[in-house]
Amino acid sequence: MAETAEPCLQDQLLPGGAPIARDLALGLLRRELGRMQGQVQRAFEAREIHGLAAARRLGHHMDAMMLVIQDYAAAMVPSASGLRSVDYALLATGGYGRGVLAPHSDIDLLFLTEREPGPRTRRMIEFMLYLLWDLGLKVGHATRSPKECITEGLRDATILTALVDARFLAGDDRLFAEFQVEFAKLREEGGLAPFLAAKRAERATRHARYGESPFLVEPHVKEGRGGLRDLQTLYWLARYAFGVSRMPELVGPDSPGGGLLTEGEARAVKRAWDFLWTLRFHLHYVTGRAEERLTFDLQPVVAARMGYTRHGSQDGAERLMKHLFLTAREVVRLSRVLEPAIERAALGPPATRRGGDEGLAELGLAFADGKLVAAPPDRDFGREPILMLRIVKAARDRCLDIHPLAIRALIRHSRRADRLRGDPEASAILIDLLMGKDAAKWLRLLNEAGFLGRFLPEWARIVGLMQFDTYHVFTVDEHTIEAIGILKQVEQGELHEIAPVATELMGQLQSRRALFVATLLHDIAKGRGGDHSEIGARLAQEICPRLGVSAEETETVSWLVLHHLLVSQTAFKRDIEDPKTILDIADQVQSPERLRLLLVLTVADMRAVGPRVWNAWKATLLREVYWRVSEVLAGGMTVPERDVRVARAKEAAAAMLPGFSKAETEMFMGLGYPGYWLSFDAETHARHAAIIREAEAEQAPLTVRTRVLADRGVTEVTIYCSDHPGLFSRISGALAVAGASIVDARIHTLTNGMALDTFWVQDSAGGLFDAPHRLARLAVLIEQALSGRLKLAAEIRKVRREPARLAAVTVPPRVVVDNFASNTHTLIEVNGRDRPGLLHDVTAAISEQGLQIASAHITTYGVRAVDVFYVKDVFGLKVENERKLGPLRAALLEALTPPDAPGGGPSPYREAAAPS
Q: Region (Disordered) spans which residues (predicted)?
């Protein structure tokens, strides 16, 4: 293809040997570039070739074009004697030097000169570069002599790495030969150690920026851990140490280093290269740019292009991501296998000694370079799989490192872990690692090595398993290990300021082992379809005996897995002021010990989801649930005490009104219905009394007060005004326009017909909404919304939308009506895609159905909104008639449907009637 096109293009640019005009040449080159790129794209998208072959084909085509461009440049910038020869060597470096190019890759060139380039050479180089830039190519370039290359390479590891890949394209090959001699001398004299140290430092910096974990749900395919750059690092190390150009050259006893890779590992390298390059090509073609991050919006598109379809409970995007995560883990494993092998082959074998620790010798372990290895020559992981666990435990107990060669052996023999299933010593060590110091570090090592999936076959099913949402940051296995790490932080008191109650309770637990095992297994059934809590509880009953867990602890573990979402769902989706809510959870828990276990597990689970999930408000709600249920379990609350509690609340409030006359106090005491008195503490009641007295004295139609509660991570907004249908909807719309996100709300109509509504809000990122100018604007927007001067529909549309990358995450709308969770109210739970003004739409729909909202509980999981409303009809009764519930569900489903979705209503934001 390129071979036949090249002479044709050469003849067109230099007909009869004379160059054509530059603008004509540029047009011909553009057409040729487009033709060759289109040819590769068509072959790739027809699946005639995969990523690596496509990358090589693009590199080959670019080689041909560079030769033509250099000949044309030589003709356009002739020497004084009229000769067209060049006095430099044109080299490809970087990825282009390896002969591979992605559709939108940079082209790295090195113009190698013998001395300071003369005027003609500078003009030629400039001519070529401008021509390449005008073609729309991104070109990295340098002009150096061979000695300057070495000097600059010693100063900058990035330049040195680019030189490792240097490949001759055209020009003076003597200069390239001279460069090769100088570079070989550098490698021989300097050795591998400086280059290895530089690449390790560079990798650490890169991982810190693009992701330390290979299991991030929006991974960077090129620079993230387990990505293409990690594979390229292995190639650079092998090439620098041994001069090889392909990884299979490291297979076999006669290869450099004596066989650093097995044939199976060489095949794994090839599979990973090809898969990652294929993924990268799709990313470039789909986005039309050098996009390297596989974001949520791109995952379904790329999955479809690569032929991934739904299989069982997993859709195509989830199957693609699991393949990617398993590939990333394979790259991590290959790095752990090959890098130490290259280091040792280049720098010499480790000095192994057995002495110094009698206990180690009894375990079958020894020292090598001060690090742990299996004791040679008769002890190895293949013959004694238990050594794989012993070495990890010994490293932890003695605060030692495991030798890289031992980690290499652990990875290579991890499949032998299945022989240890049911082995008492193996189970005891694993439980000890789970509960001991740095548990997450050692479990992560065992997981990445493949040991955990072999030892626990149920675990293998969650390795690399992602959930296609924007709530979970990690895959299920990584999330679980993260949760165990957080559990250890709680136990060691490191999270005392963030989770003080959980930290205190941790020291009171009787069932510590059950808690750690339950954390390990709490998501073990994800990806199987159905309720993962119920399935996981059954699996726990099978797994625990294999791990040597007693029957009593097994029951506790199974119960914790079954109910591990109970506390969080109650805190975020139920009115914890409703006695029935607390009594129901107390009936489920029944014992203070189980309540303590559930709270600590909930804290670890939530904080392990992602950095933005936990906040002070959620911590406050969890604590409230814990203390209230704890009170019930101690015999401190029953339903018949409601009237007594109301009376006590009024007495406490009255005691805090010393500046009130007797008439004013009696007037305030007569305003609130029982639900109001049970919803707030005495201090808040006193603050409300002051607001109401001031408003009545000034005859103010609207009073808005804000209070920043920094310790709870929210701002409290209190609104006192005349009650009317649609009030909640208009206020929530105004808050959305102000940029405030509602996390909870209490809606109270007083006996004088006025509404006393309290909203707790955060900013859109889950932080404090506390800037003075934003609070002032919020009050103005509420007044404008209630007076009808603020056009909510138009203003909400102006609110910043979510990033485009999240648009592909679908959230089917769902409405659940529950008449059993409360004795006095109907609960309406709506699930849908979050968007600016969603709460405005939903509450407008509820109001239009003639229902009154008593309280609202707002929770967001990524792009999923889960909002729960406690409602009554106009007569103050539950809504139980299906003739009313049917239209209510239909109206809410319409409100949940995004305006731009198929079937979305013509009026995306309904306006509630303004008060007359």
A: 897-916
Paired tokens of 142:
């340098």
165 and 238 in a common domain? no
Q: What's 271's domain CATH number?
A: 1.20.120.330
Average pLDDT, the chain: 87
pLDDT at 62: 95
Contacts of 770 (CB under 8 A, 6+ apart): 708, 710, 715
Q: Which of 141-150, 446-455, 598-607, 873-882 has the lowest mean pLDDT?
A: 873-882
Note whether residue 618 is domain-resident.
yes
52 close to 44: Cβ distance less than 8 angstroms: no
Q: Could you give the angle at the alpha carbon of 737 between the alpha carbons of 733 and 742, nearest 5°?
A: 60
**Rounded to whole angstroms, how far apart are CA atoms 327 and 182?**
37
Question: From CA 530, how far away is CA 544, in angstroms rounded?
Answer: 22
Residues of the chain by 3-state class (helix, strand, coil), percent to 5:
55, 10, 30
Identify whether 911 is part of a domain. Answer: no
Residue 110's pLDDT band, with cuts at 50, 70 and 90, is very high
734-761 as b/e, with b when 16 or more CB fall inside 10 Å? bbbbbbbbbbbbbbbbbeeebbbbbbbb
Q: β-pairing, 167-171 with 139-144?
A: unpaired
* 250-227-238 Cα angle (round to 5): 25
Which range has the worst mean pLDDT, 347-356, 785-794, 857-866? Answer: 347-356
Summarize the confidence of residues 203-220 as an average pLDDT: 86
Cα separation, 492 vs 435, whole angstroms: 12
For residue 119, tell me if it sits in a domain.
Answer: yes
Between 374 and 640, the more confident residue is 374
Q: Do you know the residue count of the chain?
A: 916
* Residue 662 CB neighbours (<10 A): 8
Backbone angles phi, psi at 172, to 5 degrees: -85, 105
**What is d(CA 647, CA 651) in angstroms, rounded to the nearest whole number?**
6
Residue 2 above 50 pLDDT? no
- CA quadruple 379, 385, 390, 393: dihedral, nearest 10: 140
User: Looking at beta carbons, which pairs linking 684-692 to residues 24 or more positions away fall under 8 Å?
Assistant: 685/649, 685/652, 685/653, 685/656, 686/653, 686/656, 686/657, 687/718, 688/718, 688/720, 688/756, 689/653, 689/657, 689/660, 689/664, 691/718, 691/720, 692/668, 692/720, 692/754, 692/756
Specify the number of domains making up the chain: 5
For 139, the enclosing helix (H) or strand (E) is strand 139-144
AA letter at 192 = L
Do the domain assignments include residue 435?
A: no
Q: Please, are residues 732 and 839 in contact by the beta-carbon 8 Å criterion? A: yes
Report whether the peptide linkage leading into residue 349 is cis, meaning its omega lies within 30 degrees of zero: no
The reported pLDDT for the residue numbered 863 is 73
User: Looking at the predicted structure, is the pLDDT value of residue 67 above 60?
Assistant: yes
Backbone angles phi, psi at 896, to 5 degrees: -75, -20
- Please give the pLDDT value at position 620: 81
The pTM for the full model equals 0.76
Q: Which domain holds residue 253?
A: 198-348
In this structure, are 492 and 581 located in the same domain? yes
- At 908, the pLDDT band (50, 70, 90 cuts) reads very low
Highest mean pLDDT among 66-75, 365-374, 847-856: 66-75
Check if the beta carbon of residue 51 is closer than 8 Å to that of residue 280. yes
Cβ atoms within 10 Å, residue 398:
13
Type and span of the H or E element at 394: helix 386-398
Q: Identify whether residues 740 and 768 lie together within a single domain.
A: yes
Is the model's pLDDT at 519 over the cut of 70? yes
Instruction: For the beta carbon of residue 515, count every other beta carbon within 10 angstroms.
Output: 25
Query: What pLDDT is recorded for position 899?
Result: 63
Distance CA 404, CA 345 (A): 13
pLDDT, residue 216, reads: 80
